[in-house]
Amino acid sequence: MTTRIVVLGGGYSGQPAARLAARAKDVSVTLVNERDLFVERVRLHQLAAGEELRERPLSDLLAGTGVQLVVDRVVTIDPEAKSVVLASGDTLSYDTLIYALGSRMGGQTVPGVAEHALTVATHEEAVLLRARITDGGVVTVVGGGLTGIEAATELAEQYPALKVRLVTDGVFGARLSRKGRQHLHRTFDQLGIELREQAAVREVRVDGVVLADGEHVGSDLVVWTIGFTVPRLATEAGLAVDEHGRLLVDDTGRSTSHPDVYGCGDAVAMHMSGGQELRMACATAMPVAQHAVRAILARRDGRPAKPFRFRYVNQCISLGRRDGLIQFVNRYDEPVEAVLTGRLAALYKETVVRSAFQVQRHPSFPTSF
Ligand SMILES: Cc1cc2nc3c(=O)[nH]c(=O)nc-3n(C[C@H](O)[C@H](O)[C@H](O)COP(=O)(O)OP(=O)(O)OC[C@H]3O[C@@H](n4cnc5c(N)ncnc54)[C@H](O)[C@@H]3O)c2cc1C
Question: Is 39's C-beta closer than 6 angstroms to any atom of ligand 1?
Fold first, then answer.
C-alpha cells in the first residue's frame, strides 16, 4: 500500500525531507510551499546588502525526484481528518504529515516595529530592505545576535558611506568566547560600526529608535533582527506545542500528541537527551529532517525508530565577505577558547553555506558541519 506523505514547507528542512522520503518504495510525497522558490535564508543579509543571489526555483530542484510540488499557502491542518487545507481551497489528505514551516519575524511587542522597521527574516523583507538602502545616511540594526551581527557587517562592508550602528540590550557577544568577542569588536572598529550595548529599544519611530532611558537615536532606517516567531498552524490545529507555538516532538521527530505528524526545523521544539532545546538553525534543521524521515520509514516497515543524537561543533558567523568568525563550541553549544577568524573563517562559512545547499540536492549528505 502506498503511504501518502505530505510535507509542509520547502525550506532548509522540508525540501530534503521530501526528497529523502521520495526515495523510499511505496510512498507518494507532496511538498507544499507558498512560492516556487527555495530561499537561502542564511544569505538574506547578503541579498539585503545588494548582492545578487542565484534564484533557485523549487520546481527545478525537485525535477525528477518524484516529489509533487504544490505551490500554495497552508491555512489549516485537520489532524483528526488527516488533511490540510490550502489557500486555493484545495485539500490534501495524508497518512503522515511533516511540519516544516520555519520561522519569521513577528509577535513584536515593541511599538513601531511593524510600522517602521525592516528586517532580513524572509525573502520579501530582505528585498524590501535592499530597495531602501542607499550608500549614505544612517542605519540602526537592532539586535546583537548572529542575525544582527551578520546584517550590520554586511551592510557596512557593502556601503562604505553608510553609517551603521548596532544597538543591543545585553553585552555584545555574550555567547562567544573572549577571543571571539575580541575579534568581533576589532571587526566592528575596522568597519566603523557604532556599537550601543546595554541599550534596550522601547520604541521604533520613522526617524530612529527610542531607548529605555528615553534617548532618541536618530536613524534613516531601522533593521530589526530579534524575535523570530513560528506559524500558528500547529497551535490552531490542537497539536501539542510549547509556549512559543513550536510543535513538540520526541527524539524521533514525532509529534508528542499526534503520532502521524512529524516535524523538523525552526517550527519544531526538539530536545537533546539532557533536555536542552535545539537552537533554531540550519545546522539543526537538516539533521532533524533526515532523522524524522528515517524514523517514519522505519516505523512503516515495522522497525524501531532510533533516537536522535546530536552534538554541536561550532557557530559560523560571516562578518562581510572578507571576514568571519568561527566560534568552536562544546557538544552543548557552549563556546570554548578556540576561534577561526579573518579570510579563512569567511571561506569556512561560505563552505558551510554551500554545503547546506548541497543537502538540498543530496538529502542524505552528512549534515554535521
Ligand atoms: C539572515 C539569516 C541568516 C541566518 N544564518 C544562519 C546561519 O549562518 N546558520 C544557521 O544554521 N542558520 C542560520 N539562519 C537560520 C536558518 O535560516 C533557519 O534556521 C532555517 O532556515 C530553518 O529551516 P526551516 O526548514 O525550519 O525553515 P525555512 O528554511 O524558513 O523554510 C520554511 C518554508 O516554509 C514556507 N512556509 C511558511 N509558512 C507557510 C505556509 N503557511 N504555507 C506554505 N509554505 C509556508 C516558507 O516559505 C519556507 O519556504 C539564518 C536565518 C536568517 C534569517
Answer: yes
Tell me, what DSSP letter sits at residue 306?
Answer: P
Residues 124 and 167 in one domain: yes
CA-based nearest residue to 291, from 101, 100, 65, 39: 100
In this model, does residue 15 exceed pLDDT 80?
A: yes
Out of 153, 282, 354, mutate this one to test ligand 1's pocket (max ligand atoms within 8 Å of CB): namely: 282
Domain range for residue 63?
3-103+230-310
Does residue 248 share a domain with residue 202?
no
Evaluate: CB of 220 within 6 angstroms of ligand 1. Answer: no
Domain boundary among 204, 227, 250: 227
Q: How far is the CA of 137 from the centre of ligand 1 (A)?
A: 30
Q: Is the same domain home to 123 and 205? A: yes
Check: pTM over 0.90? Answer yes or no: yes
How many structural domains does the chain have? 2
Looking at residue 369, its pLDDT comes to: 60
**Is the pLDDT score of 219 beyond 90?**
yes
